Amino acid sequence: MGIARTPDGGSDVTTRDRVHLGAIAVGVVVDFVGSGFSFAALVVVAAGAAAASGGAISTNTVERWGGELWFIASGSVVGLAWSAVGGYVAGVFAEFDQVRHAAWVGGVSLALGGAVVLAGGGTSALSWFEALSALFVFPSALAGGWLARRRSRLGQRNA
After folding, report:
1. Where does residue 25 fall: left (phi above 0), alpha (psi -120 to 50 degrees), or beta otherwise?
2. Under 8 Å between Cβ of 89 and 20
3. Rg of the chain over all Cα atoms, to the nearest angstrom
4. How crowded is the C-beta side of 64, counted as CA atoms within 13 Å?
5. Which residues contact 1 (CB under 8 A, 6 or more apart)?
């Protein structure tokens, strides 16, 4: 579509052309804050389990976990779940074009996540797995947007 003209000659941006930046921002914040808190909880639970089994916990222990598949896989699954939640939240807040708003959340989250990884400078032996899981950030956010769209359509039917 494009910009529609009103009878008085002004322009009216159609719904298709609009983007709700606030919805995208909220979705990205939900993704990052949720992922961050969940990752911290994962570290605490893993440290508690290690301490309960009689192991000593230090910063070296946590750094060692950063190179282990179970830790990276757990963090990736949790992060992807939060990407879906962020996409869903953006879609609900936008109230239109839910999947498109979720796509923006996925793209921004992927770019910011990449920037965080590059700024941290840390690489592990399992960088291939981290790169593979990054491929699923965008589809996860899209899935959240799809759920928001589905919720919206079900609500319209029931109204």
Report:
1. alpha
2. no
3. 20
4. 9
5. 14, 16, 17
